[in-house]
């Protein structure tokens, strides 16, 4: 089941337990990063360009449901 990304007008909700705030999100992405290494060799990503990204799954952190997450309207959102 594909779950769409939340928008300014919507948010995720677990239909099994009602959770609105805690989810584990699995994404696949292809990115180009500009990595700066300091003199000690510690990397810092200074620029990141997302070429492609897809949402694979959203799992409820409270009840562990994977196929029960849906989009609902945010309170007070302008439709």
Briefly characterize the structure.
The protein has 79 residues and is mainly β. The protein is 0% helix and 54% strand.
Top keywords for this entry?
single chain; 79 residues; mainly beta; two-stranded antiparallel sheet; 0% helix
- The whole-number mean of residue pLDDT values reads 92
Major beta sheet, strand line-up: 1-4
| Biggest sheet details | 2 strands, antiparallel
- Counting DSSP E segments of at least 2 residues, the number of strands comes to 4
Terminal Cα span: 25 Å
Radius of gyration: 17 Å
Task: Tell me the series of helices and strands, N- to C-terminal.
Answer: EEEE
Class from helix and strand fractions = mainly beta
Helix amount, in percent?
under 10%
How would you explain this protein's 3D organization?
- There is one protein chain.
- This protein has 79 residues and is mainly β.
- The chain has no helices and four strands.
